[in-house]
Amino acid sequence: AKQADFHALGATKRERLFRAGNQLGKTLAGGFEVAMHLTGRYPAWWQGRRFARAIVAWVGGVTAEATRDGAQRILLGRGDGEGAIGTGTIPADAIVGKPASRQGVADAMAIVRVRHACGDVSTLIIKSYDQGREKWQGDTVDVVWFDEEPPEDIYTEGLTRTNASERGRPGIAFMTFTPLLGMSNVVARFLKEQNSDRGDTVMTIEDVEHYTPEQRATIIASYPAHEREARTRGIPTLGAGRIFPIGEEMIRWEPVQLPKHFKRIVGLDFGWDHPTAAAWLTYDPDADVIYITDCYRVREQTPVIHAAAIKARGAKIPVAWPADGLQHDKGSGEQLAQQYRKQGVAMLPEHATFLDGTTGVEAGVSEMLTRMQTGRFKVAAHLADWWEEFRLYHREAKGPLGIPQIVKINDDLMSASRYAMMCLRYARADQAGADAYARNRRPSSNSWTTA
């Protein structure tokens, strides 16, 4: 299903990234798409881009050897002996003549001619990143496939070659790789600089059907902890820079109805050009466990719109908010937090602080991480926006001393969750459920109160 999603994006997206773990089928998908474009033989279910004429396609990998063993093997088959060429995704009856070999690299091909359904001949040119940027200049190309992550300059150069593919419409460029290089500029282009021309598809080990649950568990356990998320779920490896360096399975929670005596609070992070975000937190006071049950993230909307969304999920749930809610709106001259109060949102009287009155970001992040590591922080599995931010939340070295600092981009729900956690003491239970719980609990149990 994720392969089909990736292909379908080609109908509307000029640039695509297919992020996936190792051995899940990303290169196979890339190889079949290139073969379809070269031959013009599209299956009935195909919803992606179509070329009604012969094309020029470039395919590249890290080195000539790696490209031969990866993309070329998928496209043409393994090796160049008799009967080998034509056993890949490009049918043997479509290959015109003998492919031209790449000098100096055994069994590596350079140019392949392929008969298109229109009768003309398409051209496949196989390159590698170690040839340098100059080898990726000059030509006009319809399709570029980067198998494994390319350097930024080579990606830009390859994309540029597709500018004038068809009259009034550029060609397409796509990448298939496991993001082991972390939050590189190439990855950030799709995850942090999204626009209407770019599409990002993620395929995890849980999305594929060619492994049994037992095989999945064995494969996941076989990888080093710091590479596990990238190699099994296509999540960029952030190494020491990742703020929450733990496996998602430690905090993933399949939602069930929580008891009414559990306390609830909302964390709100204000925004405009970056999203306004809210996270709904439910707290089990006996086990000291936090559950993130819902979230909201919308940009460029007024407090009226955000307030309606917050109240729809429970108008009486207290809302924790940051100090910038004290700032005055340039138009109305009214504090931002007060604008939400006027809309009926149950804003706390003061901005979010810890019990001792401090507001340190690092202290909040540290407490969140400790809770995650000790099983006291759980997040609903279906909250895609929350998980997206969690995976990308990281530090980068800043300033002349190279001191790692939290990157304040795409962190809105992380901040909202932190504000709610800081203000747990103000969380409230459904009163009827709380009263029933208080009447029936044992005297020896830990005591609690509704703030």
Write structural notes for this entry.
With 451 residues, this protein is an alpha/beta fold. The protein has 13 helices and 17 strands. It has an 8-stranded mixed sheet, sandwiched between helices. Strands 9, 10, 11, 12, 13, 14 and 17 form a 7-stranded mixed sheet that branches. Helix 2 (26-39) crosses helix 3 and helix 10 packs across helix 12.
Amount of beta strand? 15-25%
Low-confidence runs (pLDDT<50, min 5 residues)?
442-451
Principal-axes shape call: elongated
Q: Kindly report the average pLDDT value.
A: 89
Count every helix, treating DSSP H or I runs of 4 or more residues as helices: 13
| Strand-pairing-aware structural class | alpha/beta
- The helicity comes to 25-40%
Number of beta strands? 17
Intertermini distance: 48 Å
The ordered string of helix (H) and strand (E) elements is HEHEHEEEEHEHEHHEEEEHEHHEHEEHEH
Radius of gyration: 27 Å
Q: In what order do the strands lie side by side in the largest sheet?
A: 3-4-5-2-6-7-1-8
Report on the biggest sheet: 8 strands, mixed
What descriptors fit this protein?
single chain; elongated; disordered C terminus; 13 helices; 17 strands; 451 residues; alpha/beta; 7-stranded mixed sheet; 29% helix
Break the fold down into its secondary structure elements and pairings:
Layout: H1 2-9, E1 15-20, H2 26-39, E2 56-61, H3 64-76, E3 95-101, E4 109-115, E5 121-128, E6 143-147, H4 152-160, E7 172-177, H5 185-191, E8 198-203, H6 213-222, H7 225-233, E9 252-253, E10 263-269, E11 276-284, E12 289-298, H8 303-312, E13 319-320, H9 336-342, H10 361-373, E14 377-380, H11 384-392, E15 395-398, E16 403-406, H12 412-422, E17 428-429, H13 431-440
Parallel strand pairs: 1-7, 1-8, 2-5, 2-6, 6-7, 9-14, 10-13, 12-14
Antiparallel strand pairs: 3-4, 4-5, 10-11, 10-17, 11-12, 15-16
Helix pairs in contact: 2-3, 6-7, 10-12
